[in-house]
Every structure is written in structure tokens, then in C-alpha cells.
Amino acid sequence: MERRTIGAGALAMGAVGLGCMPMSWAYSGSRQRGDESLRAVHRALDLGSTLLDTADMYGPFTNELLVGRALKERREDAFVSTKVGLLVGEQHIVANGRPGYVKRACDASLRRLQTDVIDLYQLHRADPEVPVEETWGAMAELVRAGKVRALGLCAVGARGGRRSGARLHDGTIRQLQRVQQVFPVSAVEAELSVWSPEALDALLPWCEARGVGFLAAMPLGNGFLTGTLTPGEGFEPDDMRARHPRFTAEMMAANQPIVAGLRRVARRHGEDVTAAQVALAWVLAQGRHVVPVPGAKQERWVTENAAAAGLHLTAQDLTEVAALPGAVGSWD
Questions:
Q1: pLDDT digit string (tens) for 90-101?
Q2: Are 68 and 34 in contact (CB under 8 A)?
Q3: Would residue 101 show up in a list of annotated catalytic residues for this protein?
Q4: Which terminal residue of the chain, N or C, has fewer Cβ atoms less than 10 Å from its own Cβ?
Q5: Considering 27, 58, 101, 121, which one is annotated as catalytic?
Q6: Are 120 and 81 in contact (CB under 8 A)?
């Protein structure tokens, strides 16, 4: 697979990563099987999808443990990204950016991942009660201690920006400007897909101008852009899409023209090319500093996603995708 180099630290990884969250968090629990997920991780590494993206809150903790089982055997084949800053309670999630906690959380992640060093340590969310510079300073100390190679930041929630009329990622950019004064940001992780392209407006150009890598989260629109979901079929109660406004039967039906457009482009490239691969290729085409991180928990989806790295969209394809109707239904 093509490799991409991102960030000032020249972090090298496969052009398509693997989001490990669905293996143990946020999606249908009945379909989460550890051994099957472990095979998916090994398949990704075999195909050159070296970026394994996880977080201590996924599970919580069980996702890192699962990834650690693979790393125990194949650490040299993988680029490991995990996150800190969120704690999961019974019915809530809270931020914790206290420096002491960050350092303890890193040590715990290292143990679960069965590794001596984390390639990319990301701040999941800033703690509103702790200056982000203090949290980032503690993370920078982990780099100097040799426990972490580089630092990244996940985009903050954007709903407030929608209501106020501000640009969607203004809050994230303000955080980036602050932490850059403390220690270099190597990567930003934020949603980017055909049906959620807002990062193109300001966040992606900000990263490109400063040599910061961009990890595209949810590049398949939580599975919608694969064309494998049936409107009205419903989701299990523990699946986050069961409560998501864009995944009601009405909104899924209304957004089918987006999937149909991706399929039209796919057909021009061959019978075996899928809508999902076109969606990932579109993300890849947004810049050499962009690495899509589709979530998957089965070998067949990992294989399909990895193949998107070899799909090169033409100017006509990109124009056609850009002309697709915008998504119907608010994220709020």
C-alpha cells in the first residue's frame, strides 16, 4: 500500500488506516467478537494499513487490550495511535486533562497495548476546568520521556458553532493555536467524508499550511456511505446510530442519492469497485497529508477499505462527487 508521511516528525503510515473502535464500542454489541476483530487487525497489517487507531475510553479499556494482543506479535508492523482525556461513567462521559492523570493514563495505555512507546498520543477532548496548555505540557513530557513519539488533537464538538453561526471548526483551530505554542501538533483527527465535508472549509487548509497531518474520522459516514445499510432496518439499542438523527428511516431514505452517486462513479472503475471505496478515495484525494481511518471489525471490510488506496479518481469523478446533494438531517 502507498505510504503517507504526516507531521513535522515525519510519521509514516499506510494511506488507509484502521479505526478499531467498532470492535468493542459504540456499535452493535452482539456483533463484536474478539477473535474475529483480532483477525481483522492482522489482515489490516498484512495489507499495509499500519495505522491502528484506538482510545482508552473505547470499551472502556477493552479496545486497547484487543489491539495489544495484536501488537504483542507484530509491534514493528504497526503505527499505534491512542487517545487520552475522557473518562466513561455509568451514564456519562467526562473530560480529565489534569497533568497527573494524563501521565498515569499513558502508563496504563502502554500496559494494555503491550508496547514501550505510543506512536501518536492524542488529546481526545480538552478539560474545560484545566487550561489546555497544561494538559498538552504533560503530554509533551511523555514525548521527552520516550513513552510517546508524537502528539495529536481530536476536533472538539462543533454543535455550538452551528448554533452561533461560527465556522464549524473554529474552536478546534483556537485550541491548535494555543497548544502549538507549547509543543508541535503532528496530527489532527476530525470527521471528514462525502456527506460531512465541513473540515475542507478551514481545518484541513490550516493543517496543510503547517505540515500537520489530518486523520479523517468516520470517512464512511458511520457506515452509511457503504450502501450496505437498509433504511428502516433499525439498530441495536447500544448502537450509537439508534439515536442519531441522520439514521432515522426517513433521513436514510432521503440521503440515498448520495450513495447512488458514489455507485455511479464506482461502476466506471470496474464491477468490483464499491461505493465505500469511492468514498475513501475521495478522502484520499483531499491532500497528501490526509489519511482516512475507516472503522471495521471484519476481515472482508478491512480488505475492501485497504483496496481504496489503489483507486485513483479522475477529475470528472471528483467533480461528480462534489456535485452530489448535501446530506439531509442535522447532526444535532
A1: 778 999 999 999
A2: no
A3: no
A4: C
A5: 58
A6: yes
